Amino acid sequence: MTRKEQKEEKRKRILMTALDLFVRKGYYDTKISDIAEAVPMSVGLLFHYFESKEVLLLELVKMGAEGTKSAVMPGAGAPAEGAPSAMPPDLTADVTLLKFLEKMFAYAKEQPWVFNMFVLMGQARRTGMPEEARKEAATVDTIGSTVMLIEKGQREGVFHEGDPATMSACFWASVQGIMEEMALNPEMKAPEPGWLLGILKR
Question: What is the distance between the alpha carbons of residues 22 and 178, in angstroms, rounded to a whole number?
Fold first, then answer.
């Protein structure tokens, strides 16, 4: 492994360690020394990679935002490496969401940090978090990106009538809650995607 590769590997280890601690202990209750001890490395060396805890949080939120924007819904662009790919455009809305959920849960089981990222992105949007990270997290609009798909499903007759924005918010609140439970309980099995679709289907 080259020196550059070793440096990148350490950087990734710091990020994943911070992600785990921010989710388990909370951002404000996690000290930079906690992260350094868990990596493990000296606090001084950690500061060589990230100048502050706020910078670490922002980097994680940027990772989460990039992955979500590229992979969360069909038509959102090229998916992140290894992430669920976009669905073919000719599928009905319910099948599109079903296949997306199947891929998302399978990918998250292969890459457990994804569960933690869902939790962190939810936390980062809350009032009281560092403003730059909060603004970055707010650029991810999963609810808005799903509204058009719900409208499509209503036209197709597969989703029930109702305000698409409210329906999308309820759908994603359920997904967020499930991902948080699975982050806290790694032994928990992913639910059947059809259960979540029940929120939307006729």
Answer: 18
- What CA dihedral angle connects 142, 145, 151 and 152, to 10 degrees? -120
For residue 122, give every residue at least 6 positions away whose Cβ sits within 8 Å of its Cβ, in sequence order, or none: 176, 180
**What confidence score (pLDDT) does residue 114 get?**
87
Tokens matching residue 170: 């309820």
182/163 Cα distance (integer angstroms): 29
CA distances from 82 to 162, 164, 176 (A): 35, 30, 21
98 and 196 Cβ atoms separated by less than 8 Å: no
Q: What is the pLDDT of residues 65-77, one digit of tens each?
A: 887 765 545 434 3
Number of H helices, E strands in the chain: 10, 0
Instruction: Give the domains, in start order, of the chain with CATH numbers.
Output: 1-51 (1.10.10.60), 53-197 (1.10.357.10)
Answer with the residue of higher pLDDT: 153 or 145: 153
Neighbours of 34 (CB within 10 A): 15
> Do residues 160 and 151 touch, judged by C-beta distance below 8 A?
no
- From the list 53, 171, 179, 57, the residue with the least C-alpha distance to 116 is 179
What is the per-residue pLDDT across 46-95, written as a single tens digit (0 to 9) for each?
A: 999 999 999 999 999 999 988 776 554 543 433 444 444 455 567 899 99
The mean pLDDT of the chain is 87
